[in-house]
Amino acid sequence: MSLEEPQDSDQDQPAVEGRSLGDELADLLGDHVLSREEHLNAPGFVIRPDEVQDVLFKLRDEAGFDHLSCVTAEERSNRYESIYHLKKYDDPTQEASVVVPTDKDNPVSQSAEPVYRTADWHEREAYDLVGINYEGHPDMRRILLPETWKGHPLSRDYEQDRPQVVPLREHANPLEDDHSGDGGDTMFLNIGPHHPATHGVLHLKTTLDGEQVADVESDIGYLHRCEEQMCQQSTYRHQIMPYPDRWDYISAGLLNEWAYARAAEDLADIEVPEYAQIIRTMGAELCRIAAHMLAVGTFALDVYGDFTAIFMYAIRDREKTQNILEDLTGQRLMFNYFRLGGVVWDLPEPRAEFFEKIRDFLDDLPEALEEYHDLISANEILQIRTVGTGVLPEDVAKSYGATGPVARGSGIDYDLRRDDPYGYYDKLDWDVAVEDGCDNYSRLLVRLREVEESAKIIEQCVDLLEDWPEEDRTIQSNVPRTLKPEDDTEVYRAVEGAKGELGIYIRSDGTDKPGRFKIRSPCFSNLQTLPEMSQGEYVPDLIASLGSLDIVLGEVDR
Amino acid sequence: MGTLLLQSQTQTPLVDTIAGLLGLDGLLGAVVGGLLGAFLIANVMLVTTAVAGPWAKRKITASFTDRIAVNRIGPFGLLIIVADAVRLMSKELIVPDGVDRPAWDLAPIILPFSALMGFAVIPMGSGVHLADPEAGLVYAFAVASIASLGLVMAGYSSNNKYSLLGGLRSVAQNIAYEIPLIVTAASVVIFTGSLQMSEIVAVQAEPLVTVAGITIPQWFAFVNPFAFVLFLAANLAEVGRNPFDTPEAPTEIVGGYQTEYSSIYFVLFYLGEFIHIFLGGALIATLFLGGPAGPGPEALGFVWFTIKIWAVFLFTQWCRSAVPRVRIDQLIDIGWKGMLVLSFANLVLTAIIVGVIV
Amino acid sequence: MIGILKGMATTLKHAMDGQTFTVEYPDVAPEVSPRFRGVHKFSQERCIWCRQCENVCPNDTIQIVQDDQRNGEQYNLHIGQCIYCRLCEEVCPVDAILLTQNFEFTADTKNEFVYNKEQLKNVPWYKDIDPLNSRNPDRGAWIGEGEGEVDYQ
Questions:
Q1: Membrane-crossing residues (chain C) (predicted)?
Q2: Would A153 be classed as within a structural domain?
């Protein structure tokens, strides 16, 4: 298809020669398009709220946009707006935004759920926080806030200070309807919110048939901290950057910071010096190793049961990366190391010592990984536990917008570091780890292999940094103290976080704070696949599948 | 226990010794000696458990996971045992709503009780042997199996779905693994021709081969290693340790049958589990490792016996560090389709060998 | 079966080599990187009461009270609420506020975590690491040269 021409996504929609992607798509959509918008990352098409499914079906089936990355909802001065950020799994640089304005008095829009299953949760979130109703949605309920919540916190007329009074009658017995299975052959079981294996405060409403899972429904929102709103009240230049560390707080901080940095740098048109990019790449990969170590360790914990050796070994190796990161950034988890236009500090002095430390870690890593393979992946019992359980077929994974190791464990060759290059990744030599087993075991293997690849990247970065000429060590470009991007500029940018595609949508409103700040959390989309993976399986496999998804509730609930 | 001792007319050294020390004889001597002996052995096992539970287990796990573990209270952190005992006993005993009261209270008592009863017939060496009935082996298995009853009671009466799942799992597991366990033990009985524990130990004392002046005794672990491994594995399942700890499975069903127990009831459960592991170890030592036999004078028998049961305990902890838990359906599969078949094959084979060769 | 044995051999190897990774914390002070960001230290002598730190703080941790002459009266910092992002140190033109390596602080109630300028001044250095030295190389990118000797004690 002619749509698959390579296109430079870093620029504002180049309509240089021939026809741009936007024009092509406009032709395809024809009368559906009411007007066009230009987002920094993609052409935007404004469509009628009752034609959402037609348009999205066309874009998915005829133009190949098979990845609904994110749904951003927002209340503007005169309308409600839902933006569907579409991408292609084959080439994520090809993006399109479908903007659906809805009436202020009666914000009803057609649901995209029949087209992309992932829209289910995204639209529920939009309903919950902004207050847009989606017609044809199978399950239009609140998702993050409790059912009894009054008002929609991100809508304009929401009173922040009004206490949420929940009458006892509504609150008396939150588990009342949990006896739905009584009398039948099934048993209702609450797994969580306080359960040893839910990796945080996740509540799984499971219906069991014997020991087999007949149905499972995730109840999230226990760790909702209004991260989007906090970012909307902070300045671009300084105040937002500490917060990304706290989304995925399992030491994936730099990866998260990069998501914000990438979006904001595109928004404000900030250049990042090459030297800083290398430091960023190195730091981010260290974070990825730390995050994957914990993922592997806790997954082993879920399968092995008791407090096992593997968990401690993984934590020990994670600790080593954290020591390096502490030397580099000054903190072990909440790094706050990136700044718009670079990083805050150069490498610690003496540099040789720092490089030595990293190299020591990298030298020990193969041996440690060998140990993991001995302990985990080569273990027959683990294999019978994980091979063929928690199966997530490729097409289902795509429909749910799964990304990161979850997608790569299902045979989807999708890694933004390679497919939508940023930082220094495209100049380094590394591979994307893909396994096509689609099961828990594949996801485990992908993580272990990704640690190896990250180590490769770090090694190359260290080589580069060691030889970098001293006079050329610019860690930050010149960025004004106060950033005020042009009014009404919109950008959606994603990076490959530890758990998958971590996207940030920012709309500027002419002030030094974002008008709308939306986080596309990879865990949020990945967690949605849990019912698909675990229906018909045993409870232990449900737990293992949950562990293999590697969710962080801080990022799911934001 | 006294009545049981009276029925068995065999020699019971510990009871006689105590009776002799007190200058009693006849019925009174047997009763008093029996009671005191039982008291003594029960306390020995409780002390062993107290060392194993709060202290040894932590230290062992820590060394497998590159940590230090308790080292602050007392030498090697040993006083943590006291601290833990005080801590656990001073906790509030929470009785959840809707528990099935007598059953819920009985369950934690049954569990350690059943395991302690088993030690009555174990010859621990150095004359520490409470009773030696002719059907000693059967008795040991019979009382050990009462534990399943306790687990089911706990699971069912707790009014908690996790407990129920745990109780169901434990009963399924116990049935699936008790049969291979006993059938494997039966192969030992074929060798010895007796169910009496002292007889089983005595047979193993005979030499198997003599290599370069060192006499290897006829321990059944050497005679029939296959049965030994089988028994070891089945025993892991029987005492509910990794990879067969599905009835507890903290990450799946948050502790199973013991979910709702706190304070002293929890201690009793914990105690029961550990004594059970040691009873399993005692059975392994008696059936396969020559009981209290070992180099040195006979008086060291108790030491050797203790070393052997601790070795089995260490083995369970070692498995815990590196072997994943199997799923409950896989566990039942392995039990019925694997272990049972293998144990019967072992039995038939042993029978043939014993019948043809001996 | 071989995989299981391999796994068990691996853990046994770790058990036998006797190495531990634990830091015996209260007895042995842990290594802390010179860049580590801990409890703040504040110097009233250096402070010019420009209120930049108060403005940049992402979650309103710093409270500055001035009299009508714009002379500083109070400098309060809630170290329990602080997220240790170090932005206050970053924007400070005179190095009046610094994040020490000190990570140990305790209190009975959260209100006791609100430090006033005296308490902030008395925060001890950790292992005598002066963060200014370790972070100095790139401070030039951010601030002008501070005047004179820095003295927090």
A1: none
A2: no
